[in-house]
């Protein structure tokens, strides 16, 4: 019976620190602690452990804080510039796509006319038209992908930062 | 709850939400002044958390810098409904996990797994107990560092969040991405382990 009450005390001591205790449990614990020196010692040791955690000091090297600020400012500037470049690129892409779509009928007519003039098979001038139309989009796509990956690689994405 | 208490709780929660929104707006703009203020406010706690998780000053300093870079780069993902520090600590925690996954997979098993009860390694406990014999003569911070190093990472983490950062259980669950019962269970076991270490050191 006594063993059970010591065990309950230990559980309650920890529970008080995790979720808190009901009034009844708290009253039981208080009365047991006043009567049991062993459990009181355990309560004190737990109190010391928690107090030690509370009082743990970890002073930061001010140079690290300053260095972090400097890096953040640089990276923020880098990201702003990258975003401005990407915006310009997307606007250019959108304009180029709209112009491409608008000029497609005229371009088709042009390729057809040249194909007839030089007596080229239909498949040849259609292939030429498709390539003419697709190549700029492919080039722009490659440029955008390249810019994006360069922007992400900029700083700190490859693991620990250099000191 | 009385009307005054309700008013106090509501205004505190409104202020928190308002502050969260201001931070979210600043992070979306990548406002350097806001970042300076956030560093000023959280640098000590963040560094202490990282130091407790990694147990190494240099690694903690590296991760401290990288955490803030992530805050800048991923600021748009911050949800103003949650507390900024919970988000900040979650970023730091993920960086610790990434780093340890690269360096020492065993550590990650302890910190990252949702396994309920990591065991306290016997040999390490004994080593700590002998270290704790000197507890009376040592600085408290040194002792806490030694004790924390010898605790399984999953326990160490919740103890730090609870007793150093004074976070609530729900907030802790958010930081460690674990269900509430798991967080509670880790806290129970972590506290119990700390208590036993202290007793062992004094025996």
Structural class by sheet pairing and helices of chain B: mainly alpha
- Low-pLDDT regions of chain A: 155-163
CATH class of the largest domain in chain B: Mainly Alpha
Q: What is the helix/strand order of chain A? A: HHHHH
Q: How would a crystallographer describe the biggest sheet of chain B?
A: none
| Name of the CATH homologous superfamily of the largest domain in chain B | RNA polymerase sigma factor, region 2, helix turn helix motif
Rg value of chain B: 19 Å
Number of domains of chain A: 2
Instruction: Tell me the total number of β-strands of chain A.
Output: 0
Structure characterization notes:
The complex is a heterodimer of chains A (163) and B (203). Chain A has 163 residues and is mostly helical. Chain A is 83% helix and 0% strand. Chain A folds into two domains: 53 residues, no CATH class; 92 residues, no CATH class. In chain A, helix 1 crosses helix 2 and helix 4 runs antiparallel to helix 5. The longest helix of chain A is centred in the middle third of the chain and has 56 residues. Chain A is elongated and about 110 Å long. The two termini of chain A are 60 Å apart. Chain B has 203 residues and is mostly helical. Chain B has two domains: 92 residues, Orthogonal Bundle (Rna Polymerase Sigma Factor, Chain: A); 89 residues, Orthogonal Bundle (Arc Repressor Mutant, subunit A), CATH 1.10.10. At the A-B interface, helix 1, helix 3 and helix 4 of A face helix 2, helix 3, helix 4, helix 7 and helix 8 of B.
